[in-house]
Amino acid sequence: MVPLESLDLSGRRVFVRVDFNVPLRDGVVQDDTRIRAALPSIEAIVDAGGMPVLASHLGRPKGERVESLSLAPVAERLAELCPFEVIFVDDCIGEDVRAVIGTQRHGQILLLENLRFHPGEKANDERFAEDLTSFADRYVNDGFGVCHRAAASVDAAARRFESRHRAPGILVRRELDELGKLLTPEARPFVAVVGGAKVSDKLGVLDHLLQRVDTLIVGGAMAYTFLAANGVEVGISRVEEDLIQRARGLLDEARKSHVQVLLPVDHVVAPEFDANASATQTQGLDIGPGMMGLDIGPQSQLRFRDAIEQAGTIFWNGPMGVFEWPAFAAGTLAIAEAVASSRAFTVVGGGDSVAAINQSGWADQIDHVSTGGGASLELLEGKSLPGLVALGAKV
Ligand code: AMP
Question: Is the CB of 350 within 6 Å of ligand 1?
């Protein structure tokens, strides 16, 4: 892959795939981290004389126009954040779009409408990729969060350009550099903290992490499948029954490889999955009948914090509980604080842990906050990402 700086951009129209899949509420951007993350590439392209035409998906409109998933509010936010004039184009392919692109002047940024309003995007359709990028002289992929998806704008579009005319953006480069450090960590112990909803989503990365880490901390709903595998009473907590055996295998594997696995030793529980359910703490490991674990308890926080304090390298993905609900957020916020206060090299990846770290106010203490949840996990699993392969990455 050639670096962005080596593309000749002067006077060129540059198709830039960004990841502006941001949370929206009532047409207002709730978290602009991903928009900010694209600014360095946008500025570098303009500084080098290029004219960026940005494209992104937002949500899951399933190949049709859905007004509530328009990128128009994102264009407004982008205009507030960047020093250039931002023009929103209300589709991403077609004559009218090309006509607007034809009027673009240097110093103006165009943002195209949601790519997923067309079925060709998800289908990785070559024809759609051609319609989308036929105006462009250069191609840049700065949407790290979509690099693991073989969508038209990520894969087919990139392959239309000669290798000297396409490049990863600054954000993608930085993600690869920083996440790459976790594959061969310099400072030990390497502690991975994994949480979130499902073991099934994270089996691949757990397998891979086990070969690299010294300590694996498991929290969130995932922990109950592991606790069940150890024969602990977990009440009506979320357990993936079909994965208990696999979880047991992972624990055996960890023992053989001398990897320490830390599971919660106490819990915040409730009788139902509800924001206002009455929350109580267990006295120990077991969760009584009719109760479900929705956060780690204070003893677990201490135990996890101790391991985090000793770490030389830390990777954190996934919340320790249902942190969206204040009664079950303490465990996740305690981990956020512990990771942020650590002197280790720290990487936080995954949408929910990033939201939690932002919510905690500690984000600027983290060495690298990854913008791509799925993409960062697949990279750590050792998988090759279609968006990088399309750019010519050696795999
Ligand atoms: P993930 O996307 O896999 O990282 O999962 C994040 C989701 O897991 C968040 O929406 C949390 O509310 C949820 N979660 C974390 N802990 C629990 C738990 N103990 N029970 C149910 N859901 C949980």
Answer: yes
Helical spans, DSSP H, in 269-372:
298-310, 330-341, 351-360
> Domains in the chain, ordered, with CATH?
4-171 (3.40.50.1260), 178-381 (3.40.50.1260)
pLDDT tens for 49-89 read 999 999 999 999 999 999 999 999 999 999 999 999 999 99
Ligand 1: residue whose CA is nearest its atom 12: 322
Residue 31 has pLDDT above 90, yes or no: no
pLDDT digits (tens, 9 = 90+) for 254-266: 999 999 999 999 9
Instruction: Tell me: cis bond preceding 271? Omega within 30 of 0 counts.
Output: no
> Ligand 1 centroid to 32 CA: how many Å?
22
Residues 6+ apart with CB under 8 A from 271: 277, 278, 290, 291, 292
C-alpha to C-alpha distances, 154 to 117, 358, 388, nearest whole angstrom: 16, 28, 9
